[in-house]
């Protein structure tokens, strides 16, 4: 049985592409598009890794990351952050807040797949 | 001995000739001796009513204290010297320099003014790139479309045995995203083209309304008449208002203007201003209106009724500026949040508490401004509804009123373009490397 990814992203075609490349490699992919309820979904689904977009409707990815890192029940959960803003300050903020990795859009499929494997040890 | 080109120096010379003590002249003009001392040493700009008052007590015409092409030139040279880092210029020999090398002095002043203009343009463009919501949203849209296209195209190119259903779906996605990318790119190019022609072009409904009011000097004689027309009639044919949201905002502003004009008719209000001065508290009491209405009325007087320009800013409970009427020397940010030290925001934190404060913006030889600020609930939802706050700040320059003595609050425009290095209220680093 493959590992489990929760993809939190609001762009339907990006969701579709990431879902395809991960599913093809045997990953189970759940998706969620609303920032307001994203943290609740993480706690309910308990994935092996979260791929988290920064700009989400309702709540920013940074806020969701803060909640994840404050939750001792989610200790060690790898979070791969995606953002359309590739600025240094966003990368630094992501690292400061405990993101496992930060990836600027547009990314390559190979990079995403390699990062997910590396972060989960799969 | 050559006659001094500086107004402050001339005031000091004339007072000395008359044998008048500095304290006596200050008392007669209604200012403190320390403030007069700053003026006489050319460390404060002077103009408007105070200049006329000092000239009267010195027994000369105001023009005798300011005449001469050299005054403006020397003031500009002093500003240039004040902003210079490293080796200091010989400020005490500016007049001698301008007298001996007038051509070089004019050239230096012109270069300094040009540098200041370019600095302002850089500040404005940086402010725009950082905070412009349209630009930010458009770039996000374009990058999202590019990401989806890149990822989908790679799947189609690299997956040999792709299921026909997936293939069809990805082709459709590619088509949708490429159309979205084209539209986003076109919108961006159109927007940047417009901005390249005029970096000050309007980019929001609020800016359209401000352009409409600026073109009319913030005064609308049509709404001052007893039988004022429907504000909607004034908007017909207003070239500055190109969008429906801008027209809606303008309509709300004009409706409020008309109500203010009905409660404070112009001729009666002008007489009250002559009696009370530009004191919005006294004016509000006299007309039985709230002080914010008196602020608005003062800011929309026709030119000539006040001694000088009157500025006004209004913000909502989030601190977003909803109205801006600038005055020279008090720069208002076009996008994003303003300086948290503005009395406007101090008032926002203390609803219904009136504030009066003297403020000094950052910069070489900064002017001072007398400000009045007040925050009031709009009661849009009644007592049961959520509290909706609106704060206003009246901005009166030195040429419009006599600035009272007392504490002075240093302020900026917004952190991003503020050179004050050690400000306790700083929320982000400044793009200006050199501090004060």
List keywords for this structure.
heterodimer, A: 122 residues, alpha/beta, Rossmann fold, 5-stranded parallel beta sheet, 5 helices, 20% strand, globular, B: 436 residues, alpha+beta, 434 Repressor (Amino-terminal Domain), 4 domains, 6-stranded mixed beta sheet, 6 strands
Description of the molecule:
The complex is a heterodimer of chains A (122) and B (436). With 122 residues, chain A is of the alpha/beta class. Chain A is globular. Chain A contains 5 helices and 5 strands. The termini of chain A are close together. Chain A has a 5-stranded parallel β-sheet with strand order 2-1-3-4-5, sandwiched between helices. In chain A, helix 4 links the parallel strand 4 (79-83) and strand 5 (101-104). Chain A has helices at residues 12-24, 38-45, 61-70, 88-96, 109-120; strands at residues 4-8, 28-32, 49-53, 79-83, 101-104. Chain A has one domain (4-116): Response regulator (Rossmann fold, 3-Layer(aba) Sandwich). Chain B has 436 residues and is α+β, with helices and mostly antiparallel strands. Chain B folds into 4 domains: 7-120, lambda repressor-like DNA-binding domains (434 Repressor (Amino-terminal Domain)); 133-197; 203-263; 304-436, no CATH class. In chain B, 52% of the residues lie in helices and 9% in strands. Chain B has 17 helices and 6 strands. Chain B has helices at residues 7-18, 22-29, 33-40, 48-58, 62-66, 69-82, 94-100, 102-131, 133-158, 164-197, 205-215, 231-235, 244-263, 266-276, 280-287, 291-299, 343-348, and strands spanning 311-316, 321-325, 355-361, 369-377, 389-397, 408-411. In chain B, strands 2-1-5-4-3-6 form a 6-stranded mixed β-sheet. In chain B, strand 1 and strand 2 form a beta hairpin. In chain B, helix 6 (69-82) crosses helix 8, helix 7 (94-100) packs across helix 8 (102-131) and helix 9 (133-158) runs antiparallel to helix 10. The longest helix of chain B has 34 residues, at 164-197. The two termini of chain B are 36 Å apart. The mean pLDDT of chain B is 84. Classes of the chains: A alpha/beta (122), B alpha+beta (436). The interface between A and B is medium-sized, with 17 and 21 residues.
